[in-house]
Design a protein that fits this description.
Elements: E1 5-11, H1 18-26, E2 33-39, H2 46-56, E3 60-64, H3 70-80, E4 85-88, E5 94-95, H4 99-110, E6 114-124, E7 130-135, H5 155-159, E8 166-169, H6 170-175, H7 191-200, E9 204-215, H8 228-242, H9 249-272, H10 280-298, H11 309-320, H12 322-340, E10 347-351, H13 355-366, E11 370-375, E12 385-386, E13 389-392, E14 405-408, H14 414-423, E15 431-433
Parallel strand pairs: 1-2, 1-4, 2-3, 6-9, 10-11, 10-14, 11-13, 14-15
Antiparallel strand pairs: 4-8, 5-9, 6-7, 6-8, 12-13
Length: 435
């Protein structure tokens, strides 16, 4: 009889991370698992660490991959797996010890094609301490804890963005012939897998627990490569050729919502590095996305009703032209500078330590601003640090310099936080909303 969950762990030169990743799976409270480690030719000691761990735990299965391809490695694991459900752990990440017991119990009770949960993203500071950021799949809390058909809820298309936050019924994957793209490297090859599971699943469940720990700052990760637009083009153009013509209206909405978010995020990665679409190859990718998404917009498949405002606003600008988008970004930056001043003019407090706080922090650092502190309403964070900056309680505002500027980095509650600051005595002209 097979395991309850088969955990696939593809690796290539992750010696600094692999032991923590595998140990986090070994130490699961759900013991009836198999751990399939597929290495693509590491030469940094990764394979030797895997060999040592496998000698101590018979649940670990080792396999060499003859291709350096994340998608190919995961597909090998799916073919080898004996478990009822399949999971993937990227080998620079790690998981909470209760992850697979929690997901599997819900999957069995509700007979789900897949079950997923929220997660923590983290980065490592200079002092080696980790900063964790809660990442929620949905803003709409009503979507958690209910069995749903995902393609009927547009929020799944732009919120459920990662392969590794859940478990997938193997019988479902085999029946629907769902696999990852096998392009060389480890570059966005789960796009097709996620799109197809989102479209074809009938019974899925999302949980509020934060089980997975996602590393944001590893050198060499495809998400930090600067080539996201190219990788996204490769995956979506392949999907267009294989599934687009067979999609119903709901499936098409899922498909193009995902494409729109990917386009926005990948261009945002280029823009955040101060780059432009200059060479012809990138221009071709940009124009391909423009054509596809303009058509979907004209057909009413995607619009402001089915994509969150902060995504749709940027996509609409990108569909006009890169020049128009950059012009609006520069206008936004001028507006922010009109409140928080030029770099070095005033100290800035970032209100919000979540994902957008992390983004705002990066933006301020890149532009040379003087950061005084972080601030958050989460009492558990007070007194801790992000890099060298303390996280303060809002109750400390009366003790802050009068001329300090507050940059609100919270999408869902920015209006409430602004009102909170005003009630605590901060002048309106000292408050800027980042998102």
């Amino acid at each position: 009889m097979g395991a309850k969950v088969s955990v696939i762990m593809p690796s290539l030169n992750v010696a600094d991370y692999i032991e923590e990743a595998v140990q986090s799976v070994i130490n699961q409270t759900l013991k009836d698992i198999e751990i399939i480690c597929i290495d693509a030719g590491s030469n940094d000691g990764t394979w030797e660490i895997l060999t040592r761990l496998a000698a101590a735990d018979g649940r670990i299965i080792l396999r060499h991959s003859d291709r350096k391809s994340y998608g190919y490695q995961v597909n090998l694991g799916i073919a080898m797996a004996s478990g009822e459900y399949i999971a993937v752990v990227e080998t620079d990440d790690y998981v909470d010890s209760k992850m697979y017991e929690g997901l599997y119990q819900e999957a069995i009770v509700h007979d789900c094609d897949y079950v997923k949960s929220d997660y923590f993203a983290y980065w490592t500071q200079a002092d080696r301490k980790r900063v964790f950021v809660r990442k929620n799949i949905f803003f709409n809390q009503e979507l958690y804890g209910i069995v749903m058909e995902p393609k009927l809820h547009w929020e799944t298309a732009t919120g459920d963005w990662y392969l590794w936050s859940g478990i997938y019924k193997k019988e479902f994957l085999i029946r629907e012939n769902i696999r990852l793209s096998e392009t060389p490297g480890a570059a966005f090859q789960d796009i097709g897998f996620l799109c197809q599971t989102n479209i074809k699943a009938k019974r899925v469940l999302y949980l509020k627990e934060h089980y997975y720990r996602y590393c944001m700052d590893r050198d060499g990760a495809s998400s930090n490569s600067g080539k996201g637009l190219q990788y996204s083009y490769q995956e979506f153009s392949c999907l267009c050729n294989s599934i687009r013509d067979t999609m119903d209206r709901e499936s098409a909405q899922v498909f193009y919502c995902r494409m729109a978010k990917s386009f926005m995020c990948c261009y945002g990665e280029i823009e955040s590095r101060g780059l432009r679409i200059e060479d012809n190859e990138k221009k071709d990718y940009y124009q391909w996305f423009q054509t596809q998404l303009k058509t979907a917009k004209e057909q009413g498949i995607i619009n402001a009703q089915v994509i969150r405002p902060e995504i749709w606003d940027k996509v609409e600008k990108l569909l006009i032209s890169e020049e128009y988008y950059i012009e609006k970004v520069q206008e936004r930056e001028k507006y922010m500078q009109g409140i928080i001043g030029q770099a070095g003019e005033y100290p800035v407090i970032i209100f919000g330590c979540g994902y957008y706080g992390y983004q705002a922090y990066g933006w301020l650092k890149r532009h040379g601003y003087s950061i005084m502190a972080f601030m958050d309403n989460n009492q558990e964070l007070w007194g801790t640090k992000i890099d060298e900056y303390f996280i303060e309680s809002p109750q400390q505002i009366p003790n802050m310099p009068v001329h300090v500027k507050y940059l609100i980095a919270n999408e869902q509650h920015s209006g409430e936080i602004k009102q909170q600051l005003l009630e605590l005595g901060v002048e309106k002209e000292n408050i800027c909303i980042y998102v």
